[in-house]
From TrEMBL:
Residues 16-25 have a biased composition (Low complexity). PANTHER family: GAMMA-BUTYROBETAINE HYDROXYLASE-RELATED (PTHR10696), TAUD_TFDA-LIKE DOMAIN-CONTAINING PROTEIN (PTHR10696:SF56). One of its GO terms (molecular function) is dioxygenase activity. The keyword Iron applies. It comes from Pseudonocardia nematodicida. Signal peptide: none annotated. This is TauD/TfdA family dioxygenase. It holds the Pfam family TauD.
Length: 325
């Protein structure tokens, strides 16, 4: 049956689906039903709202202003993406033919967006769904010894900012002043090293498993697989290794003790996410509200024009291991 604010439709392999009713004023709908919708997201982790009739960025901004606690300003972005309005971003640049593996948005920063609002202004001809995976279930599905290692050690992200892939350090940190970058890194438990020629390399040690602040569940919260060197196109990876060596890759992930995370572990993590991923093809006007701490998201390949924008809100503090490595 079609869901209402008293409940959502749950079908195997699909995210919880809420029918908003006849298309009208999306902002007014969010004003009336925002509290109930947030309760549903707390209950299910994510809810796809269908029927809002979102057509413009202004529509999305009106809904986001009523559902969130304030726009989240992105820092340390993996890839430079367009800001189309206050707190609203174009989707991360990514080749249409390549799947994007499941991950949590900005899981490596010390204040992460707790809520993501994806809005579909134009659905693709085929594919392009935003897959969702419950991270508590993923954690339960991973081998116990691997989970224990991640719980004990956390994970390490190393980034080398340059021009080949992703954003420059100026784009990632929102400044061209080195002193501002150094201050930010000290305040956010990031080791920073300036490189010859003006480049920057950073290391940050983060927890890989967190306790969800609302549900109390343990969740697998990180970007170990997404920002792994093994996630790169093999030809691109080989080219970058030849040009810059293993220490010069634009990003790589390791266990918290600095040990490499091999390709088979990355494959294992991705496979666990795949087993627990649900998806629903986008329709024009859809709104997908996601608890970023509890639910990982990815992206399927697609064909045709795809215009999905994202608003990030409800910034929440995420601790770092005390050593700050």
């Amino acid at each position: 049956m079609t869901g209402s604010l008293l409940g959502v439709r749950r079908d195997p392999g699909r995210p919880p689906l809420l029918d908003a009713g006849p298309a009208g004023d999306a902002g007014a709908w969010a004003e009336r039903h925002g509290d109930a919708l947030r309760d549903l997201v707390d209950e299910h982790g994510a809810v796809l709202v269908r029927g809002l009739g979102l057509r413009t960025v202004a529509d999305v901004g009106g809904v986001a202003a009523r559902l969130g606690s304030g726009c989240y300003v992105e820092r340390e972005a993996f890839a430079a993406r367009t800001v189309i309005a206050d707190g609203i971003y174009a989707d991360t640049p990514w080749p249409a033919r390549q799947p994007m593996c499941a991950h949590h948005e900005l899981s490596y920063v010390l204040e992460t967006p707790a809520t993501l609002l994806f809005a579909c202004l134009h659905a693709p001809d085929d594919g392009g769904a935003t897959g969702l995976a419950d991270s508590a279930r993923v954690l339960d599905d991973l081998p116990t010894r691997l989970v224990e290692r991640f719980e004990d050690q956390g994970w390490m992200l190393t980034r080398t900012y340059g021009d080949e892939i992703g954003s420059s350090w100026e784009q990632a940190f929102g400044t061209s002043d080195r002193a501002d970058v150094e201050w930010y890194c000290r305040a956010n438990a990031i080791e920073a090293e300036w490189l010859p020629g003006g480049g920057l390399r950073t290391h940050q040690h983060r927890y890989a498993v967190l306790m969800h602040p609302v549900t109390g569940e343990k969740v697998f919260f990180n970007q170990v697989a997404f920002l792994s060197e093994w996630a790169m196109d093999p030809e691109v990876r080989e080219f970058l290794l030849e040009m810059h060596g293993p220490d010069g890759l634009p990003f790589s992930t390791r266990f918290g003790d600095g040990s490499p995370i091999p390709a088979d572990v990355v494959d294992l993590i991705n496979a666990a996410h795949d087993r627990h991923t649900v998806r629903e093809p986008w329709r024009d006007g859809d709104l997908l509200v996601v608890d970023n701490l509890r639910v990982a998201h990815g992206r399927d390949p697609w064909s045709g024009k795809r215009e999905v924008v994202v608003a990030m809100t409800d910034g929440v503090a995420v601790p770092a291991p005390e050593d700050g490595r």
